[in-house]
Automatic annotation (TrEMBL):
Belongs to the TrpA family. Pathway: Amino-acid biosynthesis; L-tryptophan biosynthesis; L-tryptophan from chorismate: step 5/5. Keywords: Amino-acid biosynthesis, Aromatic amino acid biosynthesis, Lyase, Tryptophan biosynthesis. NCBIfam families: trpA. The alpha subunit is responsible for the aldol cleavage of indoleglycerol phosphate to indole and glyceraldehyde 3-phosphate. This is Tryptophan synthase alpha chain. The keyword Lyase applies. The active site is at E47 (proton acceptor), D58 (proton acceptor). It comes from the Bacteria. GO terms for cellular component: cytosol.
C-alpha cells in the first residue's frame, strides 16, 4: 500500500486544501510558508496545483490564481526545484494537466518527485484508458495516481475506477468546473454512499466545498473533503487567520 493511502486511512476525517503553486506574493519562495500554515492548521495532505494556460476543469478562482502564477513566470521546472527543497509534515499531492508534464518529460518528472514529499498525483485530463502514459513511468515509485470519479459515472465504470484507485478516490461533487458553491444535486449523498461502499481506498469529495456545513455533510457520507477555491481566495486576500480557523474547525474531531 502506498504511503498516501496508509496516511489517509489513519485519519478520522480527511481534509485536503488545494493551493496554486506560485500564487503568493513571494511566488514559489512562499511555498514553504503556505505548506507550514496548512499543515499546522490540521490539513491531512496538501494538493498543489501547477499553473497552466488552458485549465479546462478550473473555475474562475483557480484560473485567476493560475494566471497570477504564470505572470510570475512560475513553470514546472521551478515548481519541481522548489518541491525538492521544501519539507512538509503531511504528504503533498501534485495536481497538473498532462501538457506541462509531457513538455517536462514524464519520466524525468516522476523521478524528480521521488526525492520530495509528493506522494500523490492528480492529472484530470488523462482518462483511465490513457493512464498508462503515467503509470508506466510511476512503476514501483511511492506515488499514488488519484482517480477522479464524476457524478455521471455509471456503476460499472465506477467499479473499474476504484479498482485502479491509489491514495484516495476524488469524488467530483458537481458536473462542471471547480469553485461553484451551493450547487449540489439531491442525489449526491446517495451517490457518495454508494461510491464509499465500492471503494477500498478513502473517498474524498471536492468541487464547491466551501463551508463547515459542506464539510460536515460530506464527512457523513465519505471519508473527507478537498477544498480549493475557498482556500485560494482567502490566501490571496491575505486572510490567513480565516484559513487557519476554517481548517482547525473542519478537523477538530480528528484529535478526539
Ligand atoms: O475549488 P473547489 O471547488 O473547492 O474544488 C477543488 C479544486 O479546486 C481542486 O482540487 C482542483 C483544482 N483544479 C482542479 C482540476 C481538476 C480536479 C480538481 C482540481
Amino acid at each position: 500500500m502506498k504511503t498516501l493511502e496508509k496516511h489517509l486511512k489513519n485519519i478520522n476525517k480527511v481534509f485536503i486544501p488545494y493551493i496554486m503553486a506560485g500564487d503568493h506574493e513571494k511566488g514559489l519562495d512562499g511555498l514553504q510558508e503556505t505548506i507550514d500554515l496548512l499543515a499546522n492548521a490540521g490539513a491531512s495532505a496538501i494538493e498543489i496545483g501547477v499553473p497552466f494556460s488552458d485549465p479546462v476543469a478550473d473555475g474562475p478562482v483557480i484560473e485567476q490564481a493560475g494566471l497570477r502564477a504564470l505572470a510570475k513566470n512560475v513553470n514546472l521546472t521551478d515548481i519541481v526545484a522548489h518541491l525538492q527543497a521544501v519539507s512538509s509534515a503531511v504528504p503533498l499531492i501534485v495536481m497538473t494537466y498532462m501538457n506541462p508534464v509531457y513538455q517536462y518529460g514524464t519520466d524525468k518528472f516522476l523521478s524528480a518527485l521521488t526525492e520530495t514529499a509528493v506522494k500523490g498525483l492528480i492529472v484530470p485530463d488523462v482518462p483511465m484508458e490513457a493512464q498508462n502514459f503515467i503509470t508506466d513511468f510511476i512503476g514501483d515509485k511511492d506515488i499514488a495516481l488519484v482517480q477522479l470519479v464524476s457524478l455521471t459515472t455509471g456503476t460499472e465504470r465506477q467499479k473499474e475506477l476504484v479498482k485502479n484507485a491509489e491514495g484516495f478516490v476524488y469524488a467530483v461533487a458537481i458536473n462542471g468546473v471547480t469553485g461553484k458553491e451551493n450547487a449540489y444535486s439531491d442525489e449526491l449523498d446517495a451517490h457518495l454512499r454508494q461510491l464509499s461502499l465500492l471503494s477500498e481506498v478513502p473517498v474524498c469529495v471536492g468541487f464547491g466545498v466551501s463551508s463547515l456545513s459542506d464539510v460536515e455533510r460530506f464527512n457523513k457520507v465519505a471519508d473527507g473533503v478537498i477544498v480549493g477555491s475557498k482556500i485560494v481566495r482567502d490566501l490571496h486576500e491575505g486572510k490567513k487567520d480565516e484559513v487557519l480557523a476554517f481548517i482547525q474547525s473542519a478537523t477538530q474531531n480528528n484529535n478526539k
